[in-house]
Amino acid sequence: MVKATNLGYPRIGPRRELKTALEGCWSGRLAAAELGAAAQAIRGANWRLQAELGIDHVPCNDFSLYDQVLDTAAMVGAVPERFAWDGDSVGLETLFAMARGTQDAPPMEMTKWFDTNYHYIVPEFEPAQRFRLASRKPIDEFEEAKALGIETRPVLVGPLSFLLLGKSRDDAFAPISLLDELLAVYEQVLAGLAEAGAAWVQIDEPILALDLDADARAAFAHAYARLAGATKLRLLVTSYFEDLGDNLALALSLPVAGVHLDLVRGPDQLDRALDAAPADLTLSLGVVDGRNVWRTDLGRALGVVERAVEKLGRERVLVAPSCSLLHVPLDFDAETGLDDELKGWLAFAKQKLSELAVLAKGANEGRAAMAGALAESDAAIERRRASPRIHSPAVKQRAAAVTDDMLRRQSPFAQRRQAQRARIDLPAFPTTTIGSFPQTAEVREARAQYRRGERDSASYQAFLEAEIAKAVRLQEEIGLDVLVHGEFERNDMVQYFGEKLDGFLVTKAGWVQSYGSRYVKPPIIYGDIARPSQMTVKWSRYAQSLTERPIKGMLTGPVTIMQWSFVRDDQPRAETCKQIALALRDEVLDLEAAGLRIVQIDEPALREGLPLHRADWDGYLKWAVECFRLASSGVRDETQIHSHMCYSEFNDIISSIAAMDADVISIEASRSQMELLESFTDFEYPNEIGPGVYDIHSPRVPPDDEIVRLLTRASEVLDADQLWVNPDCGLKTRGWAEVKPSLVNMVAAARRLRALRVA
Ligand code: GLN
Ligand code: ZN
After folding, report:
1. What residue's CA is closest to ligand 1, atom 10?
2. Which end of the chain, N or C, is less surrounded by CB atoms within 10 Å?
C-alpha cells in the first residue's frame, strides 16, 4: 500500500507555547521541568494530530527545543571547548550556552538553512575532535511516542550533512576526515532505535541538493554502506529544496531502503529516478509543497504518484511533503480574519497532512475514492487562477516599461561621494546602528492595544513619537554620528511592508520558526504589488525634525521582502521582485523629498535567495541586484544609499554586493571573527562598508578593546577611509541594558581609532 508520510512538523505549538516556555526558562521564571513538560505536550499533540489525520509514517525527533543541527551536535558530543562541558550527556544548560553564548563564551555561529529563513547552529570541529553518544534524544522521543501508542519514524540529521555543514577554525583540516569516528556514534543511535522497536529511520541529507565534490560523494557511498551494514532498520535518505541533479544517481545507489525526492522543486527528476531506481528501493515522493502555503493541485499530484506506482508498485511508494513542514505555518483554521476566497487558495501544515492522506487514499483505491476532493481541488485551483484580485494591468505595464536608465544612479560612486560629503558632515570611522532599537514590552504592548482597539490611533502615534524622541536623544548622548528612528512602529521588517502594500496578505497566526525562540510571520504574496500610499515617511521625517544629525530612512529591500514572504507560484520570482522594487522606488523618492539625506535599504536575505546549484547563481544574482538598483537608483547624487546584510558568508558573492552600488553597506562579521574580510584581499570593495563589530545575537556587551581589535583587522584590508563602525544587525531583540553600554563602547572604539589616525 502507498503510505502517507510526513518528514517533520512545526514544533512551535498552536499558540507558540514553545516560545513562551523557552523564554520563561531562560529568564528564570520557569523551571527546566516545566519547559520539559511544555515540550512534551507539544510533541504529543503533534503525533496524535498526524496519526488522526491519516499519516502512516509520523516523524519523531523532528522536535527540537532550539535547532535540530544543534541537537545533533549534542547527540554526538560535539561541544566546543569554550563551553567547558565535561558531563556524560549534554544537558540543557550546555545546549543553551552553545546556542546563545554566555558572558565568557561566545555562542556558536548560526546560519541560514539552505535557501530558507530558518537558521541552524553551525557545528564546530577541530582536528582533535572526538565524538561520543552524549544525548539519547532520538531514542527517548521514539519511546515517548510509543508510550502514547504511536509508532513513529525517527528523523536524524545525516552524518554527511552534519559534517559538511559544519566548520573548522583550521583551514587545513577537513571535517569530513572525522566521518568514521562520527559513524560509530550513529551506529549506536541506530542500535538504540532498533532496540526500541523502530522500523524506518529517516536520515536527512539535504546536502545532496548542493554541488558535491568527488570526496564528498565517495564519503556518501562509504557512510551508507557502513550504516546499512550495521543495522536492520529501514533507512530512508531524504533530501529536499532542489532537483538532485548530478547527485541523483548517487542517492539512488546508496544501499538504503528508501530515497526521498523533492518533486515540487525538482519535478523532472522523477522520470530519471523511476528509470534508475534499483529493484527494491522505495521512493518517497515529495509532492505537497513544504515551502509554500498554496493548496496542492491534487489532480496533478496524484498523476505523479500514479506514474510512480505504475513503475514501482504500491509497496514501494510513499507520499510525502517536499520537505519538513517546519517551514510553513500550522493551521489556517486559526485565521479568523481571512475571507473565504483567499482561504480557498491556501493550505498550511495541518491542511497539508490531509492532502497527503487523501493522495495516498487516491493512489491505493483509485481516483473514484477521492472524487469529491479532486473536484474541489480543481475548482479551487481554477478560481484562484481567474481571480481579478490577482491581476493589476497598471502594475504589469509599469514593470514591463522599466528601462536600463532606471537601474543606474546619476553619477559613479566617486562623484556621489563628494556630493554626499559636502552635504553630510561625518568624522572618520562614522558610527551608526542598523535600524531597530529594543522592542520592549511597552512597545509591544502599545502595539497590541492599538491592534485590539484599546488605544486609538492618535494615542498610538503619540506613543511612537515619544519612543522615537527618546531614541534620538539617547543616540545623540551616546555620540553616534548617523541616527535611526528605531523602527518602533514595525512588528517585523517584512510584515510591516506586507501590511501596507497591495497584493499581500498578512496572517494573524501564521508563525514560522526563524531561529531558536524567534518566529516570523511571513506575509503571503498573492497578487500584483502596488503601494497605495507612503509607508515610512512620516516616522523618518519626524525623527529628522528632532535633530541636526542625519537620520537614515529605513526600508526593507525588494529581495528580502520577497524572500521572507510566501510567494505566488504562478509567476517567476524575478517578476514579483521587480514589482516590489518599483513600489519601494517610490518610497525612496518620497523619503528624499521629505528631507532625509540617507536612506538604508536592507537586503539581509540576498544571499539566502541564491539557488542551491552554482550553475544557477548568475541568473539569480543578476535580477536580484537589478531589483535593488531599481529600488535605490532614483535619488540624486547627494542622497546616500545604505544597505545592510547579515548572516555572513558573503565572500563568494562580494562582487554582486559591490554591483548593488550602495554608497555604504553594513554587513555582519563579528560572529565569524571577521572571516568576511578575507574576501577583500582579492577583491577591492569600491564603496564604503561597515563590517559589524558587535554581535547582537548574544546579550554579551563587547568591550571597546575588542571592537578596536576587530576594526584594526578590518583596516588592514580596507581603507580606513571606507570604514564605518556599526553592530552586526538591528537591536530589536536586545534590551536597553545591554544596548546602551555596547553602543557606548562602540563609539569609544571609533574615537580611539580616530585619535590613532590623527596621531
Ligand atoms: N533594519 C533592520 C533592523 O535593524 C535590519 C534587520 C535585519 O537585517 N535582519 O532591525
Ligand atoms: Zn541584519
Report:
1. 730
2. C
Going by CA atoms, what residue is nearest to atom 8 of ligand 1?
604
Measure the CA–CA gap between 244 and 239, rounded to whole angstroms. 8
Residues 133 and 188 sit within 8 Å (Cβ to Cβ)? yes
Model pLDDT, residue 670:
73
pTM of the predicted structure, to 2 decimals: 0.93
**How far does Cα 323 stand from its chain's mean position?**
15
Contact 7, 61 (CB under 8 A): no
Which of 439, 475, 493, 666 gets mutated to test ligand 1 (max ligand atoms within 8 A of its CB)?
493
Cα(301) to centroid(ligand 1), Å: 39
What are the cell numbers at 637? 547624487
Q: Say if 2 falls within a structural domain.
A: no
- CA of 731 relative to ligand 1 center, distance in Å: 8
Instruction: Judge whether 123 and 166 are in contact, CB under 8 Å.
Output: yes
Atom of ligand 1 nearest to the CA of 436: 4
CATH of the domain at 466: 3.20.20.210
- H/E element holding 63? none
Q: Which atom of ligand 1 is nearest to the CA of 435?
A: 4
Q: pLDDT class for 287, splitting at 50, 70, 90?
A: very high
- Please give the DSSP secondary-structure letter assigned to residue 122: P
Output DSSP code: residue 703: P
Residues in a beta bridge with 436: 486
pLDDT digits (tens, 9 = 90+) for 202-219: 999 999 999 999 999 999
User: How many alpha carbons fall within 13 Å on the CB side of residue 722?
Assistant: 21
Find the ligand nearest to 692 CA: 2
**Catalytic residue status for 57:** no
Are 305 and 317 contacting, i.e. CB atoms less than 8 angstroms apart?
A: yes
Q: Would you place residue 271 in the very low, low, confident or very high pLDDT band (cuts 50, 70, 90)?
A: very high
Q: Which domain holds residue 710?
A: 409-490+537-758
| DSSP one-letter string for 67-80 | -HHHHHHHHTT---
Q: According to the model, what pLDDT value does residue 759 have?
A: 62
Q: Which residues of 278-298 are buried (b: 16+ CB within 10 A; e: fewer)?
A: eeebbbbbbbbbbbbbbbbbb
Q: Which amino acid is at 270?
A: L
Q: Which of 607, 644, 695 to mutate to test the pocket of ligand 1 (most atoms within 8 A of CB)?
A: 644
Nearest CA to ligand 1 atom 9: 604
Contact of 650 with 679, CB cutoff 8 Å: yes
Please determine, for residue 724, whether its predicted confidence score (pLDDT) is greater than 70: yes
Catalytic residue among 57, 119, 260, 697: 697
Whether 528 maps to a domain, the answer reads no
Q: Which ligand 1 atom lies nearest to the CA of residue 646?
A: 8
Q: For residue 153, give the C-alpha cell.
A: 519514524
Q: What residues pair up with 690 in beta bridges, in sequence order? A: 666
Whose Cα sits closest to atom 1 in ligand 1? 435
Residue 526 in grid coordinates:
498573492
Q: Which protein residues touch ligand 1 with a CB less than 6 Å away?
A: 434-436, 487, 493, 554, 602, 604, 644, 646, 729-730, 732
The torsion angles phi and psi of 495, rounded to 5 degrees, stand at: -55, -40
Would 628 be classed as within a structural domain? yes
Question: Of all helices (H) and strands (E), which one includes residue 553?
Answer: strand 552-556
| Count of the separate structural domains present in the chain | 1
CB of 549 within 8 A of CB of 482? yes
Q: Give residue 237's identity as a one-letter amino acid code.
A: V
3-state secondary structure of 598: strand
As a whole number of angstroms, the distance between CA 29 and CA 686 comes to 50
Question: For the chain, how far is it from start to end, CA to CA, in angstroms?
Answer: 79
DSSP string over 1-20: --EEB-S----S-TT-HHHH
For a mutational test of ligand 1's pocket, the pick from 110, 436, 560, 697, i.e. the residue with the most ligand atoms closer than 8 A to its C-beta, is 436
Residue type, 208: L
705 found inside a domain: yes
